[in-house]
Each structure stands twice: as structure tokens, then as C-alpha cells.
Amino acid sequence: MKVNLDEKFGLFSEVYAPKLVAGLNDYDIKIVKIKGEFVWHTHDETDELFLVLDGKLTIQLRDGDVELGPREMYVVPRGVEHCPIADEVASVMLIEPRGTVNTGGAGGDMTKAPEAI
Amino acid sequence: MKVNLDEKFGLFSEVYAPKLVAGLNDYDIKIVKIKGEFVWHTHDETDELFLVLDGKLTIQLRDGDVELGPREMYVVPRGVEHCPIADEVASVMLIEPRGTVNTGGAGGDMTKAPEAI
User: Fold this and answer.
1) pLDDT value at position A107?
2) What is the mean pLDDT of chain B?
3) Residues of A in contact with B49 (CB under 8 A)
4) How high is the pLDDT of residue B85?
5) Which of A57, A109, B8, B106 could bridge to A90 as Cys pair (CB 3.0-4.6 Å)?
6) Where does the Cupin type-2 domain lie (chains A, B) (predicted)?
7) ipTM metric
């Protein structure tokens, strides 16, 4: 079944609550609304793709920031510590292997499993 | 390095000539311009993700068509024969494992390896 991203983004308003919209082999295609600062974390086992659909997203890295606007993407390499942050709500697609934990090895209150929508 | 998709789409005009814009573990993130009909083919080993950025894309399947507009996506399951077609140029992102051949098992003149841009 096809996925209309705008329709899916219209179904929720919580930020940092990843939603599962499709699978690709053993990868998950997720969408998330981002506002405010996440938590610094690292995925030791996988790269992580961020594609911005709407808004502006900063991916803070220890050696500098990556600023993304609509239709811009960035792949955080495995093992690279990062922390997303956005002043206003940004709508973002995330792609990574199924089971990847959103907070990586950091844990804490912002850890949340993706919910299918 | 971040990828600006509009900038990348501006670098070429050929259709059905996939361009490699990023890697995600052992997956390729590719973009392609689509106009006209491709060739019916199947990927026996992998699902294939189509995300339309601009234009309209029809993914013909043997049991019906999937019509995609901007910000709509579809994952063709492995083993499912399909054939993309578009009346006007559509700008599309493709994600699949590195080494996936664009024409699957069909071969022929439209077979083309992705070129990094």
C-alpha cells in the first residue's frame, strides 16, 4: 500500500515519537516530528539517515553542526555521536535497521519504540 | 556531508539514469528522473523503495497500478514484478541494497549502474 507522508504526519503531533510507516527488507522507514533538543547518543551498529520534509533540523555533532532544510538529507555514520535539535517543528523521515533504538546507547526518558501508523 | 536533493536533481536531465547520492550501511540512496515506460522486471532478493519528490509516477504491477504523487512512497516487495511509467518527468528517490540492478532479472538496454554525483 502506498504511503502518503503528509497524511501520516497529520495523524500525530507529539515530538520525538517515531512512527513506523513502511518496511524495506529488515529496515524501518519511520517519520518523526522534532522540536527542541534530543539527547546526545551514538548508534554503534548502524548508520542513520535523516531526510527533512518540512522545517529546519540541526544535527549537532561533536565536531560541528549539520543544518538541514526541506529536501535535504544526512547520513550519520555508525559510531558518531549526535544530537538532533530544532527551534520549530521539523518533519523528518528516518531510515535505519529494524530494532535500532532511538537513543542508541544513551538510554533515558526519550527512549521510545516506533509505533506503526 | 549533507545532500541537497534539489541541487542533485539539477545536475542531470537523463531519465532512467540512477545517480548515487549517499550510502546507508550496505544500502544505496539513489535519485532518478523517470519519464516514459521502463521495463517489466523483478528483484528476487530485495524490496525496493520509491519516494516521489516531484511529479507523478505510476508503478505498474501485474495486479494493478500504484499512483504516486509528491511526498508519496511505495515499497515494491521482493519478487513482485513491476514496471515504472510516467507521462511527464518525475523526480524519485530509490533505496535498495548496494549492487541491486535497476532492471532486476530482466536485463536489456535500460540496465544501468548508478553513477555517483
Assistant:
1) 92
2) 97
3) 22, 24, 29
4) 98
5) A57
6) 35-92
7) 0.96
